[in-house]
Amino acid sequence: MFRLLGPSGLHLADSAVDLGSTKQRLVLAVLLAEAGRTVTVANLTERVWADGALLDARNAVYTYVSRLRRVLERAAVAGAERALVVRRPGGYALDVDPDLVDVHRFRRLVATGMRDTSGPAARAMVLREALDLWRGTPLIDLRGEWAARTRAAWCQQHLEATVAWADAELRLGVGAPVVGPLVELVAQHPFDEPLLAALMRALRSTGRSGKALDLYAQIRRRLLGELGTEPGGELQAVHLSILRAGPVTTSATGTDHPSTAGTRPAQIPPAVAAFTGRSESLDQLNAVALAAREAAACTVVAVVGTAGVGKTALAVQWAHRAAGRFPDGQLHLNLRGYAAGPPTRAIDALGELLRSLGVPSTQVPVDLAEATARYRSVLAGRRVLVLLDNARSADQVRPLLPGSAGCLVLVTSRDRLGGLVARDGAHHLTLDVLTSGEAQVLLERLLGHDRVRAEAGAAAELAEACAYLPLAMRVAAADLICRPTLGIADRVAQLRDGNRLAVLSQHGDRETAVSEAFDLSYRSVSAEARRLFRLLGRAPGTDFAAAVAASLSAATPAEVAPLLDELAAAHLINEHVPDRFTFHELLRQYANDRAESVQRRRRRRRALRVRGRQTVDPTQVHAGR
Q: Are 414 and 430 in contact (CB under 8 A)?
């Protein structure tokens, strides 16, 4: 993706490509801004050297274009989509898919959202996707008149898109997610009346009519004092509606009316710090949510994967972004499917959900079927997001599925949850470990850009030693954060020289230990599957065929097949092609550690039996003589 909405650059798997000097990046930015269109050499030199500081600007353009061609060719080899600087009569053009340039993708999405007539939910979703492309002030790292003019124009487009998005969310009755972004923009554009009106509506919709009225008073004083004018018609209309009706929401038709919403839970937990990557998975979730508008039943999405891979982090991140699409509330429940204690019973989960939806405790049914019926009745006709975290099985989840077509259920689990796919039509999203590029970005966000770049090689080794598993990387980084004098290379040496799983833990916090996370998955499978898993840990390498597993366990392929499937269903191994499996290095070491632990216990038991046979009563010895 070519990025202009923030620092300019080209990123492959979240890893930046070196685009050369500032002027060379400015040449590329001009060509990107006009993607597919010819930019004359004169126009290009004027935009890059507006002050005329360079006498031989044309030759400089030729040099920069030649260098950019080589950079883009290398990037294409490394996995980037094709982008070519082509010679046209009188100038140059960048031959690239506009959707690979963030500003063009932003404009396309905004245009789509503005003309979408299917309702505010679709508009809000598309506009939110557009706004997510912004990473700060556009072209912030580039100087010059063209960059300044372009920056101002794009910032105005961003402002208008934000107001349109806020309007769509408010028409859905959702105000909380839009207040923060609007406040930030008001600080930058204190006289933009559509923006100020949107903020007043958002404050009113969240029950802060007093603050909305205070804001209007401030706006009026500022306009009169600095411009000598009264607020415009839109601001006055919002002000008058608040005075007349008190707290209101904006209906789907755009008319103001007193709020009649009942209990509207907002239970999504805080998003994880330094969330990184997963853009493809987020896009898949967005696509499912968009298709859910046409669904005739509740939409279910199962996010599955191995322990510590970041399923909950992804689900929570997306839930925060998508909250505006579910104006009747967002529910969250930890089903404790993989925890120290027993999983949450469905009847207990329904009790929590019903109470969160405003049903008094005395009216919550104690019978599972009755509680499920009451839960579905409460949600009928409502648009609610239900995040069910850490599920154990499809049977645990099924009673918690709403009957309303407007609801979406997002389930996370270490189990494959094939039953939800087969019987309930759930969408299936399997999460894998991070790519090397994503892992580097995560470390930079956790430890700081300068610290990681200063030990770039060690940082890459640290990610590899952690098998690119997000939980392991966060645990490894935590020690570096708490001990700033410890070098990344020192941390790598600790992992290489000792037992990595023992090192990847935090004193006094068992839940963050990587081995503890693996334990819960290991204990969930049968004794036969655990034995096979241990045997696989003693074998060299992390990739093996089904025939190898059969040989290790002295079983036939038919006998070992259901055990391999059981391990794969629990995401202790992955079947990447038919009859061929893999698991990452930390899981392989965990399996080996379990095998050694079992052997130690067996040796101790044998030793105890031998000592028992050797201990003889002396009186019996004399009696035998």
A: no
DSSP tag of 284: H
Instruction: Give the long-range contacts of residues 213-222, CB within 8 A, separation 24 or more.
Output: 213/239, 213/242, 213/243, 216/242, 222/190, 222/191
Distance of CA 54 to the CA centre of its chain: 46
Alpha-carbon distance values, 451 to 127, 143, 493 (Å): 36, 27, 17
pLDDT digits 0-9 by tens, 397-451: 999 999 878 899 999 999 999 999 999 999 999 999 998 888 998 999 899 888 9
- CA dist., res. 46 & res. 57, Å (int): 9
Sequence-ordered list of residues with C-beta below 8 angstroms from that of 152, at least 6 positions apart, any chain: none
Q: In the structure, what pLDDT confidence band is assigned to residue 53 with cuts at 50, 70 and 90?
A: low
Q: Per-residue pLDDT tens for 284-305?
A: 998 898 888 777 789 999 999 9
Total-model pTM: 0.60
Position 253 pLDDT exceeds 60? no
* Residue with token string 């490894």: 476
**Beta carbons within 10 angstroms of residue 229's beta carbon:** 10
What is the rounded CA–CA span in Å between residue 494 and residue 528?
A: 34
Percentage of residues of the chain with pLDDT beyond 70: 91
Q: Return the DSSP state at 56.
A: T
CB atoms within 10 A of CB 422: 10
As a whole number of angstroms, the distance between CA 204 and CA 242 comes to 7
* Interatomic CA distance for residues 391 and 466, integer angstroms: 26
d(CA 541, CA 260): 62
- Which contacts of 28-31 are long-range, i.e. CB under 8 A and separated by 24 or more positions? 28/68, 28/94, 29/4, 29/139, 29/142, 29/147, 30/146, 31/85, 31/92, 31/93, 31/94
Write out pLDDT tens, residues 20-35: 888 888 989 999 999 8
